[in-house]
C-alpha cells in the first residue's frame, strides 16, 4: 500500500492503482485502500463507472464515518448525474468534517443541479470562508499519508 501512496503522490495513477489492487488482493482490505482504488479508477478509467461505484461502496461499508470517502461518494454521484444521492453523501461528509472545503464545493454543485439556489449560495459562502481561513484546506495529502501509514485517530 505504501508503494501505491508514493506513486499516487508522484502522479503515477496507473501504477498506483495496480499497487492498491495488489495490496487488496494480498489482504489489505481497508477503507483507505478502497478509497484510493475508487479515486484512482476515476482518473485511469473514468468510464468504468461500475468499478468506481463498487470500490467506494466497499470503502463506505468498511468505514461509514470516513468523511473523505463520503465526499468522494458524493462526487461520484455527481458524475453519475445523481445530485440527490450526491447531496446526501456530501451532507454526511460535512457533518463528519465541517471544514472539508471540497465537500462544500461539491454540495454547492449538487444543490444547483437540484434547483436549490439558496442552499447552493450558502454552500458557496461556506466554501469561500473555509478557503479564506485556510487556503490549503483542500490539500490534505500529508494528513492522508500520515493516516494511512500510521493509522490512529487522525481524521482523513
Describe this protein's structure:
- The protein is an all-alpha fold.
- The chain has a single domain (2-150), classed as Tetratricopeptide repeat domain (Serine Threonine Protein Phosphatase 5, Tetratricopeptide repeat).
- It has nine helices and no strands.
- It has helices spanning 2-9, 13-25, 31-44, 49-62, 67-79, 83-96, 101-113, 117-133, 141-150.
- Helix 3 runs antiparallel to helix 4, helix 4 packs antiparallel against helix 5 and helix 6 (83-96) runs antiparallel to helix 7.
- It starts with a helix and ends in a 6-residue tail after the last helix.
- Residues 152-156 have low confidence and may be disordered.
Order of helices and strands: HHHHHHHHH
Structural class: mainly alpha
Under CATH, the homologous superfamily reads: Tetratricopeptide repeat domain
Helical content class: over 70%
End-to-end C-alpha gap: 16 Å
CATH topology: Serine Threonine Protein Phosphatase 5, Tetratricopeptide repeat
CATH second-level architecture = Alpha Horseshoe
Average pLDDT metric? 88
CATH class: Mainly Alpha
Strand content: under 5%
Principal-axis shape:
globular
Quick overview:
With 156 residues, the protein is mainly alpha-helical. The chain is built from 9 helices and no strands. The protein starts with a helix and ends in a 6-residue tail after the last helix.
List keywords for this structure.
156 residues, Serine Threonine Protein Phosphatase 5, Tetratricopeptide repeat, 0% strand, disordered C terminus
Topology at a glance:
Blueprint: H1 2-9, H2 13-25, H3 31-44, H4 49-62, H5 67-79, H6 83-96, H7 101-113, H8 117-133, H9 141-150
Helix pairs in contact: 1-2, 2-3, 3-4, 4-5, 5-6, 5-7, 6-7, 7-8
Amino acid at each position: 500500500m505504501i508503494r501505491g501512496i508514493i506513486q499516487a503522490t508522484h502522479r503515477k495513477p496507473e501504477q498506483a492503482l495496480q499497487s492498491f489492487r495488489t495490496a487488496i488482493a494480498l489482504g489489505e482490505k481497508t477503507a483507505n485502500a478502497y478509497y484510493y482504488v475508487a479515486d484512482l479508477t476515476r482518473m485511469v478509467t473514468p468510464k468504468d463507472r461500475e468499478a468506481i461505484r463498487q470500490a467506494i461502496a466497499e470503502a463506505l461499508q468498511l468505514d461509514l464515518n470516513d468523511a473523505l470517502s463520503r465526499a468522494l461518494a458524493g462526487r461520484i454521484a455527481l458524475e453519475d448525474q445523481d445530485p440527490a444521492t450526491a447531496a446526501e453523501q456530501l451532507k454526511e461528509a460535512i457533518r463528519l468534517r465541517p471544514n472539508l472545503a471540497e465537500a462544500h464545493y461539491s454540495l454547492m454543485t449538487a444543490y444547483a443541479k437540484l434547483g436549490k439556489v439558496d442552499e447552493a449560495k450558502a454552500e458557496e459562502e461556506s466554501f469561500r470562508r473555509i478557503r479564506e481561513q485556510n487556503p490549503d484546506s483542500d490539500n490534505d495529502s500529508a494528513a492522508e499519508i500520515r493516516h494511512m501509514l500510521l493509522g490512529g485517530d487522525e481524521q482523513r
